[in-house]
Amino acid sequence: MNPNRYLTKSRFKLALECPTKLFYTGNKAYSDQKLNDSFLAALAEGGYQVGELAKCYFPGGVEIRELDYATSLAKTDALLAQEEVIIYEAAFLFENLFIRADVLVKKGNRLELYEVKAKSFDQANDTLTNTKGIVSKWKPYVYDVAFQKYVIQNSKPGYDVRAYLMLADKSKRATVDGLNQLFMLSEDEKGRTLILHTGDVSSAALGERLLCAVNVDDICSKLFEDKPFEADDPKSFKQWAHFYADNYQAGNVIQGKLLGRCGKCEFQATPEEEALGLKSGYKECWQRAAGFTPDDFARPHILELWDFRKKDNYFADKKYFLVQLSRIDLEAERVKPHIEPGMSRVDRQWLQITKSAEANPEIHFDKAGLNEKFATVVYPLHFIDFETTAVAIPFNKGRRPYEQVAFQFSHHLLHEDGRVEHKDEWLDDQQGRFPNFDFIRQLKLALEGDKGSIFRYSNHENTVLNKIHEQLRLSTEADRDSLCTWIETITHSTGDSALKWKGDRDMIDLWDWVKKYYFAAECRGSNSIKQILPAILNDSDHLKTKYSQPIYGNSIPSLNFKDQTWIKLDEHGKVVNPYRQLDPVFAGVDQELLDAMILDETAEINEGGAAMMAYSRMQFTQMNDVERHQIRQSLLCYCELDTLAMVMIWEGWRAMLT
């Protein structure tokens, strides 16, 4: 037993996700797929800059930077001897529970705890609770600050402790320009992330406050009552905290429930890692809790079933494999009757189940359905992809926290005679500028020259253009009316829009066509373009023949590639995923891992984690021209491949229809 093996707030949060993870976290014997690069993690989360802004709202504080427990605790106690003091990263220990408070304000006998989160809260409309209790999306954050309050109250029983969540207030607008650029990320000599102030961060210079403090004392009081914290266990919130801490300190395994979220467990080892001797915590869980054998991990699992929403119920009944499901099980999940052409959600799920039982499953290709769709398009065809982000601290005056920011697009053109060209691209990497209005002007120039059909992949592009439409209407841009009118021609209004429209050139969702008319078992239920592309390349002799030659960036015009051969085969004769041919945006970090690191605020950004972090790095770090050029080129190449992938899907289908 390690006496300094304390349950921290991050470990408590991890235990609430899954208590078994407490055994695996920090255990070097187990693979951990979470990003271990703290600097890139800071870019992904956005929390460092929000945390620094919060400190500016509490000026004059003392920061405790020491990481060892004893020193940080001693420094905290010394500072608390003052009548009034502000402490950043104050440390508290109660038994084997240890926390560091983001901001602690001492006023006589009162301690105010502020837990800062890079999470949005509309102070005018949002609440942390409803008639059923704590709102589901807020539970992890409330439990986090409640855990901290519990530790402080018990380590310093003579104080009146007040607890707050400090959040980005989406009801507020920045009243100064360049606010985000005041906080630049850097690293010290030990590799720790630092924030550099690049200008005046006084209260007057920061303008109106963009962070709000939401009191959680009443919620904490209810959590601290001696009532069951979970429905199927008598332990209270406080008892669970000590249960986790005691088992973590002892190095015990707490076996959690098998749930649908297990599919995203970070403690899954790749075959390559297992060959090197790393263990898979994910596999050990299934072996302990469900009696899995090594062969069972090769069987098609319910976790792989596309858009299956009641996995937990089936796991509770010890149903784990696709072969154990019937079509009746799927029909029970039907949300509404299917009246549109093509496969329904249930049809696609059942197809995945039946194909998983076949030794050599063939693709499903609805030739009649796609022939009807192909007959409706107008040439030339336009294929577009956007890269976007949403930052907590706005770039410019008048912008709100987490407003949509569109910084890049790619555009491929496919002519009726089969000619392909990478026609346009646009990327704004200028620091501190709100790019959306220039983005839409450039997109309009790229698409307005004809009436050809425009394709996107998923809902994201339509949502982004709706947001820019709203931003334009509230702006003073001289051309806002013409830009809004043009946006309306290629989009349809979303449900939360005050205006309603459907353009006569409304973009076509290729992702929707994939879901309804095409299925490849090798995608294992995924409809991600990064999975669909290699599948259709493997299926299509036409594509293999065409793109096995170095024609891309030669006879096929490209803005970023020259003499590129996209078809390369692995040792099994399968096409190597073209995305794997590109240099990573960040050296030494897996692209898929970066893509998976998406903020809740930007959850609709499909597979854009790497691009989002690259843009953040260009915006919020100091880098030389060579590094900036490398990141820019990586962004351009990835976005170009996204629209080329759409072209390839279309070309493969067209060849299969003839």
Write the layout of secondary structure elements.
Elements: H1 9-17, H2 21-24, H3 38-45, H4 47-57, E1 62-63, H5 69-80, E2 84-94, E3 97-107, E4 110-121, E5 129-130, E6 133-134, H6 139-155, E7 160-169, E8 183-187, E9 193-197, H7 203-206, E10 211-215, H8 217-223, H9 237-250, H10 271-275, H11 281-290, H12 311-316, H13 327-331, H14 345-356, E11 364-365, H15 367-374, E12 381-390, E13 404-414, E14 420-427, H16 436-447, E15 454-456, H17 460-473, H18 480-490, E16 508-509, H19 510-517, E17 518-519, H20 529-539, H21 541-547, H22 591-596, H23 609-620, H24 625-657
Parallel strand pairs: 1-2, 4-7, 12-15, 15-16
Antiparallel strand pairs: 2-3, 3-4, 5-6, 7-10, 8-9, 11-17, 12-13, 13-14
Helix pairs in contact: 1-6, 6-8, 15-24, 17-18, 20-24, 23-24
Protein name: DUF2779 domain-containing protein
Pfam families: DUF2779 (PF11074)
Domain DUF2779: 382-528
Short description:
With 658 residues, the protein is α/β, with parallel strands linked by helices. It folds into four domains: 9-246, no CATH class; 274-360, no CATH class; 373-509, Nucleotidyltransferase, domain 5; 520-657, no CATH class.
